[in-house]
């Protein structure tokens, strides 16, 4: 067995260049992800949180090989996945196997389930790919037992239904079954519970966690909702990674990040999550509420334009990653000897 992480991102950057059809010289580059390094281990859980547009989905898709990075590397078990994809790697690893190992479930499962096929046919497809040796009745047996396992009873009845005959929660369970039947190493759950009724969200997260051990998989859980990310990562013993304008500003064990946030932006997210009942004051702990444009991210620390703790040096210099216990934090405040402490406070 290799000791390499399952998936390892090193200095990953994803920039999207958008043409301006009125002025071809004025193409704009969106800095969706910048300089992110992150490891996903076996049976790991990493929840990615942050405001809309901060790059969570792009980072998740990059980690599972659905988005090619414009800079940095993404390795699967120590091998560069894009070199495998391009046939440039000196390896026996096949791109098709990498693709099978890295799965996704979306916010809208309905869109990814073929409306013209019954569930038994939708769920036979991954088995055909991964276990071609199974007979028809063995496939059916596996599908029934998994449907039963995710609470869709009686399975023989559900197996004959079409996607439009299912509720949103049932569709999401089918999407989860389909991903699991691929026998994946990692599932990217991209806002996978956000569209469900609040009462069903915890049920779905519990189901995903129960199935994690049985199927030996890791999750990258993308959510704009810190309380869901907390539930998922705390119950699964995983991490929370906080993103701001394309950068990972804090990552660590879920309880540490929630109970003892080190980055001033993590504090804002915590403040903005009423479920956490952690609001200490009526005012948000930041100087401005507007999010800067990812086409033109601020210099230095990207959060300096809103940060209540920013000093002149934050405008000038991007902070390094500092270690605070098991948390990794991109903020000068972690370094007692940094010139930050002598630098004049930003007030504009
Ligand atoms: N294919 C694309 N082409 C151009 N820009 C893109 C593309 N995909 C994403 N972006 C931009 O990249 C930035 C990050 O988007 P992303 O969807 O990763 O953020 P997010 O944190 O997942 O947001 P949300 O929670 O709203 O889904 C945004 O500014 C978005 O508009």
Automatic annotation (TrEMBL):
The UniProt entry lists membrane topology as: Peripheral membrane protein
Q: Which residues form the ABC transporter domain?
A: 9-270
- CDD domains named among the record's database cross-references: ABC_NikE_OppD_transporters
What family does the database annotate?
Answer: Belongs to the ABC transporter superfamily.
Q: Record's SUPFAM superfamilies?
A: P-loop containing nucleoside triphosphate hydrolases
Q: Which organism is it from?
A: Natrinema halophilum
- Entry keyword set: ATP-binding, Cell inner membrane, Cell membrane, Membrane, Nucleotide-binding, Transport
Q: Which GO terms describe its biological process?
A: peptide transport; transmembrane transport
- Does the keyword Transcription regulation belong to this entry? no
MF-aspect GO terms: ATP binding; ATP hydrolysis activity
Q: Which GO terms describe its cellular component?
A: plasma membrane
Name the UniProt record assigns to this protein: ATP-binding cassette domain-containing protein
Q: Which domain of life is it from?
A: Archaea
**Does the keyword Cell division feature in the UniProt annotation?**
no
Fetch the Gene3D superfamilies from UniProt.
Answer: P-loop containing nucleotide triphosphate hydrolases
**Where, per UniProt, does this protein localize?**
Cell inner membrane
**InterPro entries given in the database record:** AAA+_ATPase (IPR003593), ABC_transp_ATP-bind (IPR050319), ABC_transporter-like_ATP-bd (IPR003439), ABC_transporter-like_CS (IPR017871), Oligopep_ABC_C (IPR013563), P-loop_NTPase (IPR027417)
């Amino acid at each position: 067995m290799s000791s390499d992480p399952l998936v390892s991102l090193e200095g990953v950057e994803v920039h999207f260049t958008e043409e301006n059809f009125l002025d071809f010289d004025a193409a704009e580059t969106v800095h969706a992800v910048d300089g992110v390094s992150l490891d996903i281990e076996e049976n790991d859980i990493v929840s990615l949180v942050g405001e809309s547009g901060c790059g969570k989905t792009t980072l998740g898709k990059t980690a599972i090989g659905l988005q090619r990075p414009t800079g940095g590397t993404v390795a699967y078990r120590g091998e560069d996945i894009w070199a495998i994809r391009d046939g440039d790697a000196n390896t026996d690893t096949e791109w098709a196997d990498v693709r099978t190992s890295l799965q996704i479930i979306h916010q809208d499962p309905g869109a990814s389930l073929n409306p013209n096929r019954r569930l038994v046919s939708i769920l036979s497809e991954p088995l055909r790919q991964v276990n071609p040796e199974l007979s028809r009745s063995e496939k059916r047996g596996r599908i029934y037992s998994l449907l039963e396992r995710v609470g869709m009873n009686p399975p023989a009845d559900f197996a004959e239904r079409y996607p439009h005959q299912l509720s949103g929660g049932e569709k999401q369970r089918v999407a989860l079954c389909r991903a699991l039947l691929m026998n994946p190493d990692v599932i990217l759950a991209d806002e996978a519970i956000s569209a469900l009724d609040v009462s069903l969200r915890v049920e779905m997260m519990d189901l995903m966690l129960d199935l994690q051990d049985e199927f030996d998989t890791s999750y990258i859980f993308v959510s704009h909702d810190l309380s869901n990310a907390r539930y998922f990562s705390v119950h699964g013993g995983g991490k929370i990674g906080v993103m701001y304008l394309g950068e990972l500003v804090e990552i660590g064990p879920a309880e540490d990040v929630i109970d003892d946030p080190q980055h001033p932006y993590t504090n804002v997210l915590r403040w903005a999550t009423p479920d956490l009942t952690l609001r200490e004051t009526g005012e948000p702990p930041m100087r401005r509420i507007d999010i800067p444009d990812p086409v033109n991210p601020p210099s230095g620390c990207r959060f300096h334009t809103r940060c209540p703790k920013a000093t002149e040096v934050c405008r000038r210099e991007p902070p390094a990653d500092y270690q605070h216990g098991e948390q990794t934090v991109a903020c000068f405040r972690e370094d007692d000897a940094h010139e930050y402490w002598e630098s004049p406070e930003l007030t504009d």
